């Protein structure tokens, strides 16, 4: 009889715990743009979708940027922009019509590089709390992208690609079109790479690659491709190569900007 009673108590406690956990404050998901362009004039919305128990009280919603509080909403008060977000949010933006979730999201009016980093949504009530984090990159496209050739000798020629005022640090590859197989890119051997950090925090990068003259046909198309990791941003500069004796070069630039969906 005593053993049966103990079993009933254990089962009751277990079901209470399961019921409590199942109905606790829970962040279902957060939506943070993985990458946005610096000072583009477009807003960015960071949303925090959460669930509450019907009897939850003392709701507090906070957003952190790199561990510093930048947004706070304590219903029925109006939301507040704090720290780096002061004067940078649209505080009238409502994610839903529900008074318990209306101001759960932040709408950044015009993101700039100082607002890049790790964002954390923190939701708490009198009885429980939960949080979730994601990163956002704010990138700056290059102000200059130049592709040149020079440094001839009897066997090789060098191609130099220079990019300036980029953030964060980009990846650069020099390659020629490859038409003799299914590969679309044939990277040239990089012999020099230099990166400098400017006072404004942006980067200037120079890459020098080398190619054998006997493997370059007149009219070969040479490309310099710049990518900003994690953003989908790509920019290319292209050149038609001719031997020094013919000294005819044509330079062209094309830009691609593919933002994550």
Automatic annotation (TrEMBL):
<dbReference type="InterPro" id="IPR036179">
    <property type="entry name" value="Ig-like_dom_sf"/>
</dbReference>
<dbReference type="InterPro" id="IPR007110">
    <property type="entry name" value="Ig-like_dom"/>
</dbReference>
<protein>
    <recommendedName>
        <fullName>Ig-like domain-containing protein</fullName>
    </recommendedName>
</protein>
<dbReference type="InterPro" id="IPR013783">
    <property type="entry name" value="Ig-like_fold"/>
</dbReference>
<feature type="domain" description="Ig-like">
    <location>
        <begin position="27"/>
        <end position="132"/>
    </location>
</feature>
């Amino acid at each position: 009889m005593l053993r049966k009673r103990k079993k009933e108590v254990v089962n009751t406690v277990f079901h209470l715990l399961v019921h409590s956990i199942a109905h606790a404050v829970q962040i279902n998901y957060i939506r943070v743009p993985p990458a946005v362009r610096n000072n583009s004039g477009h807003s960015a919305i960071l949303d925090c979708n959460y669930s509450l128990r019907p009897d939850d009280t003392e709701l507090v919603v906070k957003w952190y940027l790199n561990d510093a509080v930048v947004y706070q909403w304590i219903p029925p008060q109006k939301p507040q922009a704090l720290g780096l977000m002061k004067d940078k949010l649209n505080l009238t933006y409502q994610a839903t019509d529900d008074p318990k979730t209306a101001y759960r999201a932040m709408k950044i009016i015009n993101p700039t590089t100082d607002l890049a980093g790790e964002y954390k949504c923190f939701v708490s009530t009198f009885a429980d709390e939960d949080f979730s984090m994601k990163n956002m990159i704010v990138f700056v496209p290059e102000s200059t992208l130049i592709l040149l050739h020079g440094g001839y000798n009897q066997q090789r020629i060098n191609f130099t690609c220079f990019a300036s005022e980029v953030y964060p640090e980009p990846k650069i590859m020099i390659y020629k079109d490859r038409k003799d197989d299914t590969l679309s890119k044939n990277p040239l051997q990089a012999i020099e790479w230099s990166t400098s950090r400017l006072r404004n925090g942006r980067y200037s990068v120079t890459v020098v690659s080398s190619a054998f003259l006997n493997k370059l046909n007149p009219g070969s198309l040479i490309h310099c491709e710049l990518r900003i990791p994690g953003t989908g941003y790509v920019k290319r500069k292209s050149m038609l190569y001719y031997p020094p004796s013919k000294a005819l070069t044509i330079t062209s630039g094309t830009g691609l900007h593919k933002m994550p969906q």
